[in-house]
Amino acid sequence: MREWVRSCVDRLPLEFRVLYRQFLLRVVDLESLSIEAHIPSFVGQFAGVLILVSLVQAVGGLMIPPPPNQMWHIEQADIALTMLVIGLVSVLTWDGTFPDRRDAMVLGPLPVKPRMILLAKIAASAALLSLGVFCLNFASSVGWSVLFAASRGFGPFCRYLSAYWITMLAAAVFLYSSVLTIQGLSAFLLPRRLFLRFSAITQIVAFGLFLSVYFLEPYIESPAGLAALRNDVVLAASPVYWFFALFNQCNGSLPAEGLWLAHRAWIGLACAVAGAVASLLICYLHTMRKTVEEPDLVPARRGFRWTPQLGGSLQSAILLFILRTLRRSRQHRVILALFYSIVLACALDLVHLAPRIGSAAPMSLDFVVLTMWMTVFAVLGFRAICPLPISLTANWVLRSTQLRPPQDYIAAVWRSMILLALVPVWTTAALLSLPYQPLLQTGVHLAVLLLLGSILLEATLIGFHKVPFTCSYLPGKTNFQYVFWTCLVGAMLVLLFALSIEFPALQSPARSVLLLLVLFAAAIGLHIYNRRRARSAVLYFEEPPEEVITQLGLLSALPPASSGK
């Protein structure tokens, strides 16, 4: 089998094989997501996380079989999770399929046909998406097929398994083709400058849209729910319901009430694929020349400019530099949008669960946990993008203009992060707390949020003796599995803190005061510790690689010396 696959690969054109390997290594941004500048390591870690999710689902389902009336819920959840992963990967690899300036400058003079570049890029993107779909569903698909066919035999098992994979692949192709269609048509119809701004906005909106749909979309529990979708235009437009109906159609379990949703799935898939093919052809035939003059940063617009003020001139300059970097740099916006889309999804979930204003509803545990998660992800997201440089120009310009002590720069960074990371999410939580009573509990919880955010901010700034976006960055320091499990463990710790400490303390004024005093002392202690370290700190703008001494092991190969004379 291995030899047959290798022989088939060898029959492909040499240009395609070389381009495919290169594009596969560039499908993810090296400067932000690689592991020691090694894309296969990142892809392996990405696949490892998805494999673990699939194994947990399968093992849990086989050990504790769900009741038959819950299978619809599980199948919809799997389709929604697959579409979420594919959507996030599509946005993260936004520029992975279309040609960039490097492709035009390097491959343009070579005798390589544009269609060969197009096919190699499509193959590289398809390989990553196929890996994600397979790793996320390989165990769960078998587990649910076994449960479905436990008393039916081998035939229903094969049909269920085939229907499952047809649905997942169709949903992935539909969503990825839709993203390509939007990106390709906008690149063709809009001028280059407008396309850059539209592309940035679209990426941020897509992050929030995918996560919001995943967390807020209701599930259909019965055939009557499928029939009721005709009366709800918003829910009927959701592709999750389309492909859920498609799955049941392929499995032979679709009631007559949901046949129209399956038809929508087939029509939507055909339209999306046709749109993606048209967008790719138009881009490679007509808009590839525009990428030669593509700037790394979005050009600044002329007109009225308002300069924010934050204390002295240095604090204002640091704040303005951070704001302009976030506005003009695609790389920083995308990473920040990934974290802030989780914050948005939590906020929308709270809006969905919030009682009416004036109903005097008590504060719920969901509100406490979700607002804490909002604070944690907002602070961690902003801190995650600070080490990434904007350009080498910012490096040497700020280094040559360092005319004040380092503690002034560190204090300016602290104020900027308080203003941009903590204040917006705290204000959002305060607005979401208006329907809850009594006011004393909401006030204590908002104070706890502010103190927890300050503690987290101070903890993440320990040893951060540099100006954001100015220090040279060694590609590959971000570890996907480390970030994933850190966020997951952090979310669980927040949940335990809310369950065991804060929520019980909200029921007693004395315990609330004690909790606030402890958190205030921790925040003040970390703040004093960071300020003392800042007095002896030295701002650094270069991140040197670690010195590694490699031993050849030649001495161990020598024969032992004789002890006799």
General description of the model:
A two-stranded parallel sheet has the order 1-2. It is built from 21 helices and two strands. The chain is mostly helical and 565 residues long. The chain has helices at residues 2-10, 14-25, 30-33, 39-63, 71-92, 101-107, 114-148, 154-189, 192-216, 223-228, 233-236, 239-251, 259-287, 313-328, 330-353, 365-385, 392-400, 406-432, 439-460, 480-505, 509-535; strands at residues 361-362, 436-437. It folds into two domains: 10-293, no CATH class; 322-535, no CATH class.
Short description:
The chain is mostly helical and 565 residues long.
- Please list the strands of the largest sheet in the order they lie side by side: 1-2
What's the tally of helices? 21
Fraction of residues in β-strands: under 5%
Q: What's the count of strands?
A: 2
Broad structural category: mainly alpha
Give the end-to-end Cα distance, rounded to a whole number of Å.
63 Å
Number of domains: 2
| Percent of residues in helices | over 70%
The whole-number mean of residue pLDDT values reads 78
| Helix-strand topology string | HHHHHHHHHHHHHHHEHHHEHHH
Quaternary structure of the protein: single chain
Largest sheet, in brief, is: 2 strands, parallel
Which blocks of ≥5 consecutive residues have pLDDT under 50? 30-37
Radius of gyration: 27 Å
How does the overall form come out from the CA principal axes?
globular
